[in-house]
Design goal:
The protein contains nine helices and 14 strands. It is α/β, with parallel strands linked by helices and about 350 residues long. It folds into two domains: about 200 residues, 3-Layer(aba) Sandwich (Rossmann fold), CATH 3.40.50.1170; about 120 residues, Rossmann fold.
């Protein structure tokens, strides 16, 4: 009697465009149009995927990720939750994405997806038409990681260059090199190697099913409060910038501080002045360095400026936006930046 073949794990690929779907007129050109190929075309171009998983493709959008929007984030989160809720047998989801804002989309989903099955974001540094494009192997590895039982419960993951990183920790660090995604001091979670997906650590911060920011509670993207980043440097005109943004309806600010994110006297005066006129404004301080924690500091704490721990400014912005959308108090914000 012939033994029945083990069915392949089922994976959904949600395609959003990016360099991985980019095309150029030359295999050597660094200029190309992102989002030129569809998700179906990407999958069909890699026949090896048929040996890894049973794949269904949905095209969410087809853009360069510099054009990513909150509305698309909201759509992605809703689709992911609906797919998992409607199909208990679905092994995981892969999101193809441009690398420029991939880390932001990954962290947003890490905070709002209400399931513990794997969500894996993947992109490439070279377009699909490039000589030695990294997209096909990255896509295969992303599908392998999404199908791996060991991926469950680790939050949203990012897979490129044979490495698996946590959405909270990872950032793009190089303009063109394929080893661009790094997790700084903390390091990656594991490798997607030829023999297996090898794991070495788990994220400790709250995410997905342990998060209080479920996608179902988010409302429409248009209703999310405005949060902006103010970059710190010598003699910046931050007062003019912040006052203009407050007048435009901004409710929260992340200061990208120098060094250990200790703000200048001018920046502290800006916070005091803004709070005097509107006590509901929220302020967070992150560091522009890329590594290390931002610690509590008595002078800043007295002004209600929240330390971002080791979150990058762009990720601190996302957490602050979701927290303000939930109506969080200053005490809530302090707790959230310690827990997420």
């Amino acid at each position: 009697m012939t033994a029945l073949a083990t069915p392949l794990p089922r994976i959904v690929v949600l395609a959003t465009g990016g360099t991985i779907a980019g095309r150029a007129g030359s295999t050597l050109s660094h200029e190309y149009k992102a989002g030129s190929a569809t998700g179906t075309e990407l999958v069909q171009a890699v026949p090896e995927l048929a040996t890894v998983a049973d794949i269904d493709v949905q095209q969410v959008c087809n853009i360069a990720s510099s054009n990513m929007s909150f509305a698309i984030w909201r759509d992605l989160a809703g689709r992911i939750d609906a797919l998992f809720s409607g199909d208990p047998g679905l092994a995981g989801i892969v999101v193809t994405h441009g690398t420029n804002t991939l880390e932001e989309t990954a962290y947003f989903l890490n905070l709002v997806v209400d399931h513990d099955r794997p969500v894996v974001l993947v992109g490439s540094q070279r377009p699909a038409t490039a000589l030695s494009s990294d997209g096909p192997l990255n896509l295969v590895n992303a599908v392998r990681v999404a199908a791996c039982p060991g991926s469950r419960g680790r939050g949203v993951l990012v897979v490129l260059n044979d490495q698996v990183n946590a959405a909270r920790d990872v950032t793009k660090t190089n303009t063109y090199r394929v080893e661009t995604f790094r997790s700084g001091d903390l390091g990656m979670l594991g490798y997607a190697d030829a023999d297996r997906v090898a794991w070495y650590r788990r994220p400790e911060q709250r995410h997905t099913v342990h998060s209080e920011f479920a996608a179902a509670k988010l409302g429409t993207a248009a209703s999310w409060p405005k949060v902006e980043i103010v970059h710190g440097f010598v003699e910046s005109d931050a007062r003019t910038v912040v006052e203009a943004l407050v007048a435009a309806g901004t409710r929260g600010f992340v200061f990208t501080g120098t060094g250990a994110a200790l703000l200048s006297d001018v920046e502290k005066e800006i916070v005091q002045s803004c709070r005097a006129h509107d006590p509901g404004l929220a302020f967070v301080r992150a560091s522009r360095l890329g590594n290390g924690r931002v610690l509590a500091h008595q002078e800043h704490d007295a002004l209600g400026i929240i330390p971002a721990d080791n979150l990058s400014p762009q990720k601190a912005r996302i957490l602050l936006m979701l927290a303000l959308a939930a109506g969080s108090s200053l005490a809530d914000l302090q707790r959230m930046f310690a827990e997420y």
